[in-house]
Amino acid sequence: MLDDRSLQESVLNELVWEPSIDVAHIGVTADRGIITLTGHVENFLQKRNAEKAAARVRGVRAVVEELEVRLPFPLKYGDEEVAKAALNRLDWEVDVPKGVVAIRVENGWVTMRGCVEWRFQREAAERVLRGLTGVVGIQNEITTKAHPIEQDVTAEIDAALHRSRFDPRTITVTAEGGRVTLNGTVPTLADRHVACQTAWKARGATEVENNLVVA
Predict the structure, then answer these.
(1) Which residues form the BON domain (predicted)?
(2) How confident is the model at residue 170, as a pLDDT?
(3) Which of 63, 165, 185, 189 has the most CB atoms at less than 10 Å from its CB?
C-alpha cells in the first residue's frame, strides 16, 4: 500500500493526465487511503470526472469530494434557461422514458423527480445533464419501480460477478425483498463500483447496500 504522500502524488498525476479536467484550482489530500478533493472547477462534469479519476488510482480506498462548481462569469445562465435545456436533453435521450422525469432548478442546482422501470434509466437521466452549461449540482430523486423478485436472484448476481472480474469467494450476496446486500472485499475502489452496478442489473432490485471494502 502506498504511503499518503505517494498516493497524493499519484492522484494529482492522474488528474493532470485526464484531459477533461482543469486541475489549476483542485487540491488533493490523502489519509490512509482516503482521498479528499477540494477547490473549485468550472462545470459539474469536471467535478464528476475528477472524482472518477481519483477513484481509479490504485491504493485509493475512498474519495471525499468537496469540489465547488464556479461558473465562468460569461457563461452564467438563469434557472429557466437551464431547466428548458435540461428537459430538451432528456427528451433526446433514448434511455430516459418520455415525460417521466420532472425538473426543478434553483441557483443552478437541478433536482430530478419521477419513477422509472430500471436503474440504468435513472442513471442515464443524470448522466446527460452533467455536461449541461449552467448546472452546478444535481440531486437525483428519481425512484425505480418494484419488480417481482426472482427466487434465485442471489445466484444470478453471483454468476454475473463471476462472469465479470470478481472471485465469488470474496463477495457475499444476500437479498431480502428488493434489497440486495454486498459484503466482502475488492481490490480497488473502481471494482467496488462495478460490483454495485452489476447487482443493480438484477430484476427486482430496488436497493443495493454496498458494504464491500477495498483491501
Answers:
(1) 3-71, 78-146, 145-215
(2) 93
(3) 189
* Residue 171, Cβ density class (10 Å: 0-12 exposed, 13-18 middle, ≥19 buried): buried
Longest dimension (CA), the chain: 56
Sign of the alpha-carbon torsion through 32, 38, 41, 47 = positive
Amino acid found at 157: I
Write out the three cell numbers for 190: 473502481
CB atoms within 10 A of CB 169: 8
Reduced to 3 states (helix: H, G, I; strand: E, B; else coil), residue 142 is strand
Q: Could you tell me which CATH number the domain at 153-214 has?
A: 3.30.1340.30
pLDDT of residue 15: 97
What are 105's strand-pairing partners? 110
Q: Does CATH number 3.30.230.10 belong to domain 79-144? A: no
Residue type, 146: A
pTM of the model: 0.80
pLDDT of 150 reads 58
- Which part of the chain is CATH 3.30.1340.30? 4-69, 79-144, 153-214
Q: Grid coordinates in use for 87? A: 428537459
Residue 143 and residue 115 in contact, taking contact as beta carbons nearer than 8 Å: yes
**In the chain, helix, strand, coil percent, each to 5?**
40, 30, 35
The values of phi and psi at residue 17, to 5°, are: -65, -30
Low-confidence ranges of the chain (pLDDT < 70): 1, 148-151
